[in-house]
Design a protein that fits this description.
- The complex is a heterodimer of chains A (295) and B (375).
- Chain A is built from 8 helices and 14 strands.
- Chain B has 375 residues and is an alpha/beta fold.
- The radius of gyration of chain B is 21 Å and the shape is globular.
- Classes of the chains: A alpha/beta (295), B alpha/beta (375).
Chain lengths: 295, 375
């Protein structure tokens, strides 16, 4: 199965029409069966098209975005549902701010959505681990992990800071995930090691595939830029690097073919998950409340 | 990671029978006599200086040494002591307060077994032996050899490292050793303090398939050892493949993880990166990795000793404080650890979070199937 990660480089973001034209053209040219957009996709396009207002800085801009009633986000999701249908692909549309009304007020989540080739919603995931900044902005933590079928692949979505929390990858893997679609945005600069410490490390200790889309662009004065990538277990990738394909920050799209037979072969040969030793993890279990110690 | 079979040879280089015959028992007693504590002690007293009192510890600058040890076989325990002593002295002269040896550090002692160096030749011969012939000849495996050498190994380790630690006023992580403990084969690492006392030990918790074939007993918990250099932990090689190891150790307040490795595979940067480095990024810790390397009897160990830290604590934001250049020769990595900086990072971390409700929902249920399989 051909998969692709999109960085937003070289896509015109100044109008919905331009964006859609460029995105469809890219998808038509490269023909991935699955495409993933980066984190903050709705915010980035909203600012580009003028649908959202920019603040003095990134934090300020996010605050303004979160106070928006959410009509732009709905428009954004509709746009990508129709794009998935038009292209006949699975499209993980990056992330939007989910405003969840409930008794006592509105909860905010940083949420990723995926659409199937019929243009229907097929997967959703709220970010489960927040950075300090995200906590200050009022985001809540997702408390469930969703696994959904993407063709024959059991799939999960990983968002932003969840990449640095290996509990997420372990849970997805033990829930049966074959593939993780990751929407990320890392500040530009010397960040290749930060990236390796995230999804790459989760892939290696869980032996699933990952498609990681990294935002390349400027959000209210903060530059984001890391290389998008398609990853798999080291043993079945060129040079045993763990990367099937890896782009520079300004690469528009990174594509690769997933050889599921090869992945299953290495899982049989080197069954990492069956070599776990949960008897030794008693202290990690929630009833011991061990985690509470470090916050 | 070991995966080779071992055969015991007689003087003519012919494969011998099982290791529980009377000749082997007699030979085992002879080896133990050669490595008896009193004999080793006497030799150590002749070559080591008088015990040294360690100086005060600066928690902002704890110098540690990760040794890359080239695998050599020694026919004499004294030669083996000399080699270990040389490496400890090298670290001491570089200012280290803590010295770390690699996994399966008992392998050099197998040189006392006659014919061990012909192991590679025998591997070639083995290809021409039919299955029927093999069945006629009992073939002791590595587990048998480790069991056979257990009394020698334990006597050697405790005597030698205790004396070295006290002589130089150092903490020494002696590496890990495969030996029989109460009838169970274990892969255990040891830490000695500057008074020459055993400060702690750790059984390998995650075993390789080949170690499971050898019926090694895996550890059931991780330990943290409180020392004047901070809180230390001693997981072994494969333990660093799993985030659970470093997370448990971090939550148990460990600050420095000492990891011995012995990788029996061609060196590859990416494969090597999968161990300790990502673990100290996921759970903020310092990581000190020692490696057994070199080619003996047709078997090649590779690795790069190194000292790792959270990206936020390294100048180049690469998570590497020191790493040796070579993966197949003797070397040493040295770095100064700042425990206060680590504690500050943990207290004011920009991206760490925990999600109790999420863990409650999925743990321990997701481990259940594996737990049942392993019962």
């Amino acid at each position: 199965m051909q998969v692709g990660a999109i960085s937003f480089s070289n896509l015109r973001m100044d109008s919905i029409e331009h964006y859609r034209t460029d995105l469809l053209s890219m998808l038509e040219k490269n023909k991935p069966k699955v495409a993933v957009l980066p984190a903050y996709s709705a915010l980035y396009l909203g600012l580009g098209t003028g649908a959202l207002k920019q603040g003095n800085n990134f934090f300020d801009t996010l605050s303004i975005y979160l106070s928006d009633p959410g009509t732009w986000d709905e428009e954004f999701l509709d746009l990508h549902a129709s794009t998935a249908k038009y292209s006949g692909i699975y499209l993980a549309a990056g992330t939007v701010a989910e405003r969840y009304e409930q008794k006592g007020g509105k909860d905010l989540y940083h949420t990723a959505y995926c659409f199937n080739p019929e243009g229907q919603f097929c997967g959703k995931q709220r970010q489960t681990h927040l950075t300090r900044t995200e906590r200050e902005l009022g985001f809540g933590r997702g408390e469930e992990l969703e696994i959904f079928k993407l063709g024959s692949f059991k799939t999960g979505l990983i968002i932003g800071n969840d990449a640095r929390h290996p509990e997420v990858g372990r849970m997805l893997a033990l829930l049966g995930a074959d593939l993780a679609l990751c929407s990320s945005a890392i500040e530009a600069g010397f960040n290749c090691y930060e990236q390796a410490a995230g999804i790459w490390a989760q892939v290696q200790q869980n032996q699933f595939w990952a498609v990681e889309a990294q935002l390349n662009g400027n959000l209210a004065g903060t530059a984001f830029g890391a290389g998008s990538a398609v990853m798999g277990p080291c043993e079945i990738t060129p040079g045993k690097s763990g990367y099937l394909a890896r782009g520079y920050p300004d690469s528009s799209l990174v594509v690769a073919e997933l050889d599921e037979d090869a992945r299953r072969g290495i899982k049989r040969k080197y069954p990492l998950l069956s070599m776990l030793n949960p008897q030794a993890y008693k202290e990690l279990l929630p009833e011991r409340d061990y985690y509470a110690r470090f916050i | 990671m070991l995966s080779f079979k071992f055969y015991f040879f007689n003087r003519e280089g012919v494969k011998a029978l099982a290791l529980d015959g009377w000749k082997e028992k007699l030979f085992q007693r002879y080896l133990f006599w050669k490595c008896r504590p009193a004999r080793l002690q006497k030799y150590l007293e002749s070559v080591l200086p008088k015990p040294e009192q360690p100086g005060p510890v600066d928690q902002k600058k704890i110098r540690v040494a990760a040794l890359q040890v080239e695998f050599k076989l020694f026919k004499s325990p004294f030669a083996c002591i000399d080699e270990i002593h040389r490496r400890v002295l090298e670290a001491k002269e570089a200012g280290a307060r803590l010295v770390v040896f690699p996994e399966y550090n008992n392998l050099p002692l197998l040189g006392m077994l006659p014919g061990i160096e012909k192991l590679g030749e025998q591997k070639e011969e083995e290809k021409n032996i039919t299955a029927a012939e093999k069945n006629e000849k009992p073939e002791p495996g590595m587990a048998d050899v480790f069991a056979f050498m257990s009394p020698i190994t334990t006597s050697f380790v405790h005597t030698v490292f205790s004396n070295l630690a006290s002589a130089y006023g150092l903490y020494i992580m002696a590496g890990s050793y495969a030996f029989l403990d109460s009838g169970n084969l274990v892969n255990r690492s040891y830490l000695y303090n500057p008074e020459g006392k055993l400060a702690g030990s750790q059984d390998k918790v995650h075993l390789l398939p080949v170690e499971e074939e050898w019926s090694l007993k895996r550890g059931s918990r991780f330990s943290v050892i409180d020392t004047s250099l901070g809180k230390l932990a001693l997981p072994v090689c494969m333990d660093a493949t799993y985030f659970e190891t470093s997370r448990l150790l971090e939550l148990a307040a460990a600050e420095i993880v000492l990891l011995p490795i012995a990788n029996l595979e061609p060196y590859n940067y990416w494969l090597a990166l999968r161990g300790l480095w990502p673990r100290v990024q996921e759970s903020p810790l310092y990581g000190v990795k020692s490696a057994l390397v070199g080619n003996v009897a047709g078997f090649t160990f590779t690795g790069r000793a190194g000292i790792f830290a959270p990206i936020e604590l390294t100048a180049k934001r690469d998570g590497i404080m020191a790493e040796v250049e070579t993966y197949d020769r003797e070397a040493m990595a040295i770095a100064d650890l700042d425990l206060q900086a680590l504690r500050r990072l943990r207290q004011n971390h920009p991206w760490r979070d925990h999600n109790h409700r999420l863990y409650q929902r999925y743990f321990p249920g997701i481990y259940k199937e594996i737990m049942e399989d392993n019962l």
